[in-house]
Design a protein that fits this description.
This protein has 15 helices and no strands. The protein is mostly helical. It holds the Pfam family TAP42.
Length: about 400
């Protein structure tokens, strides 16, 4: 059976493939083809997350479901794997990796996942002395070790519970307490992903500082090389400038996806199908309704004509799922259903009163049925007179 194409894979399958590649790249060295494949998978995950609108800037970590928490790590994995890609223009690789890491940190900060110490350090402009730098490094190292120890504890606890569950299943065939175990697994999974994100933040801050220093060193080396010439504009300098201009345009094109996001999927059922792998984002899907606008555009009773008006109209949006029809449309739908029901009842009454339906009954059939029912009722009354209620239980009484 051939391997499925990247476009045919669901979001969980793409993320799992990329996570395995990232884990292999962190534990040992992998070839460049595998790294590029992991970057492509993560870029596809990032695009699907953007189109599905899984995260919003006005949400916090408590508003995100447990199944979607892991997708916060896509940008971090992409930044780490991009840094390991071998390319002639190393400075461009460092810039792309730093951009992904900064985006991951800023998004976690919006989700209230960044520790308060890091926020205070960044607001004060970074470490001003060697003592501050050392204190920051020590605090970050302690958070990293605490997160690693917590992940190890969760893993061991899950293994112990799995062994005890298997032993209980062998000894007792009756399965008890499955709902409680499922609840514990859900809380434990959420705790594990939050700890993983905390560990990723520690690594992202350290990696970002290292990449900044490497970029400064490479930039200084390139500047010395350029200053070492005779002052004439050589073809090498022109090629270097052309590469920088092309890299800037490529970077601007990649940033354009986030400055102007893709049109969101307004149909909740289609979005759920895309998440679970039953549909693809590229599939043509006709939405039966458009999302209601609660912003200024609805106040003036006109459709937004410019991008600015459209963004302004999306400022105030409800936190609940919007209705698919208005009250008037629902009333008309109910009236239509009621009319069909009344027409069907009228047709049935007309058929019941018609001559061909009455002709199907024999002349004396109704009278015979009435006599039989009356005789049966009389026999039942006689039996109840001979056997009053509770007569059968008198033999069970001690004094009976």
């Amino acid at each position: 059976m051939g391997e499925m194409k990247m476009e045919e894979l669901s979001l969980p399958a793409l993320f799992e493939q990329a996570r395995k590649i990232h884990l292999a790249a962190c534990e040992s060295t992998v070839d460049q083809e595998t790294l590029k494949k992991g970057c492509e998978n993560l870029a596809q995950c990032e695009e699907m997350i953007s189109k599905l609108g899984l995260f919003s800037t006005n949400e916090t970590k408590d508003d995100i479901s447990t199944t979607n928490l892991k997708y916060l790590l896509v940008l971090f994995y992409l930044g780490e794997l991009t840094e390991k890609v071998a390319q002639d223009d190393r400075i461009q690789v460092l810039k792309v990796s730093q951009a992904k890491l900064k985006e991951f940190i800023s998004f976690c900060e919006a989700m209230e996942l960044v520790p308060e110490e890091e926020l205070q350090m960044s607001s004060s402009g970074g470490a001003n002395s060697f003592a501050d730098l050392r204190a920051k490094k020590v605090a970050r190292f302690r958070r990293q070790k605490a997160a690693e120890a917590k992940l190890l504890e969760i893993k061991e606890r899950k293994e112990r519970r799995g062994r005890s569950t298997r032993a209980a299943a062998i000894s007792t065939p009756v399965e008890t307490g499955e709902e409680d175990l499922l609840d514990d697994d859900g809380e434990e999974e959420r705790e594990a992903w939050l700890t993983t994100i905390s560990l990723a933040l520690c690594k992202a801050f350290d990696l970002l500082e290292m990449l900044k220093k490497e970029e400064e060193m490479l930039s200084a080396i390139n500047e010395k090389k350029l200053q070492g010439g005779d002052g004439e504009v050589s073809p090498a300098i022109l090629d270097e400038r052309a590469k920088k201009a092309e890299a800037w345009h490529r970077d601007a094109a990649s940033r354009a996806r986030f400055t102007k996001p893709a049109a969101p999927i307004t149909c909740a059922t289609f979005a759920q199908d895309v998440i679970e792998g039953r549909k693809r984002v590229s599939d043509v899907h006709e939405h039966k309704h458009q999302p209601m606008i609660f912003g200024p555009a609805s106040l003036v009773a006109k459709n937004p004509t410019s991008e600015r008006e459209r963004l302004a109209a999306q400022v105030f949006q409800p936190h609940y799922r919007l209705p698919t029809m208005s009250i008037e449309e629902a009333g008309l739908k109910e009236m239509e259903i009621m009319n069909k029901w009344q027409e069907r009842n009228a047709k049935l009454m007309e058929e019941a009163n018609s001559s061909w339906y009455k002709d199907k009954l024999r002349p004396g059939e109704e009278e015979e049925d009435d006599d039989a029912a009356q005789e049966k009722a009389r026999q039942w009354d006689d039996w109840k007179d001979d056997n009053p209620r509770g007569a059968g239980n008198k033999k069970l009484t001690p004094c009976g």
